[in-house]
Description:
The longest helix has 14 residues, at about 85-100. Helix 4 (about 85-100) packs parallel to helix 5 (about 115-130). The strands form 3 sheets. A 3-stranded parallel sheet has the order 3-4-5, sandwiched between helices. A two-stranded antiparallel sheet has the order 1-2. The chain has a two-stranded antiparallel ribbon with strand order 6-7. It is an alpha/beta fold. It contains 7 helices and 7 strands; from the N terminus they run αβββαααβαβαββα.
Amino acid sequence: GKTTLLRIIFGELESINKSVRINGQVISEPYKSDGLIKFLPQFNFLLPSISVKQLFKNFKNDFNEFVTLFPGFEKYYKMRVTELSGGERRIVEIYSILVCKSLFCLLDEPFTHIMPIHIETVKQLIESEKQRKGIILTDHLYENVIDICNRIYIIENGKTNQVLKDTDFQRFGYLSKHN
């Protein structure tokens, strides 16, 4: 349900009797509105043939700012994204989507495949970017989500439930009482 919801918000899937509204205006295909919304899918989305250099140019992101957050990545500048490991590629994708100009950002499982050493940096980046844009994030690594989100919801049986206290994770069936 999480990925489907993000795909509906992004405008990639149609919904029945529902609409995405921004400032009260119905937006039928948000992804077609330049600078409105960016989407980090759960799985790799970058073209295999694109270089890291070209990717940063296309997204109008500053590679030097990127390497200040992720030292050691400067060696990948002229490489194709397929030459990166899965975790390295994911970090480049997250950064590209998060810092590019948009009003909203959808992140589907951003912490998956990332080395623990980089998770804190990604969380700091999300904290910084949420001052400039709305961010909707889904991830099963809920401990990381708790740290950075203003509001948390659990989708259970097609219903969206807001988490107001720690026990709600069990009440909505996300965690067992033994966790």
